[in-house]
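User: I'm curious whether this sequence folds into something compact or stays loose and floppy. Could you predict its structure so I can see for myself?
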Amino acid sequence: MRESNQFADATSGVVYIHSSPAALCPHVEWALSDALNCRANLKWSAQPSSDGQLRATSNWVGPVGTAASLAGILRAWQMLRFEVTEDPSDGVDGERFAHVPGLGLWRGTTSANGDVILGEMRLKSMIDGNSGNLAAEIEHALGSSWDEALEPYRTGGAGAEVTWLSRNAG
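Assistant: Here's the prediction. I'll summarize afterward.
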């Protein structure tokens, strides 16, 4: 009898470098190349929302958990504004990571359509926490501050070239 695996071995996602100083761009490419075991040859372009900053977008394919690895690597450069997504796959929810200088790194679980999901236990913990401001806790859990900070940089990315990166899975 063949053993069945309920979980996907591979998934895909996107790395959005919303703003990076030009001097840091080669280091970002080297780090992505190392993490994905393939050459990252990103197409950098000017970020209209921030003079002197560059932006790049790359689709990736790799094992489940790759987004967390990429976000962990990129967060070492505190001046970067970035997002990393991982699409949901068989048996595994999606993820979105966002980093903004001054706010740090945020992580959210995502549904098939990209909505942030707040699970039952997390909601119960917020309710039981009695912080006095449940709405603020929910906004924080949804990553609202990160979305607001990144929105001007996202719209600046319209029309930017996208690079595909693929890592062997399994």
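Summary: The two ends are 21 Å apart (CA to CA). The chain has one domain: 10-166.
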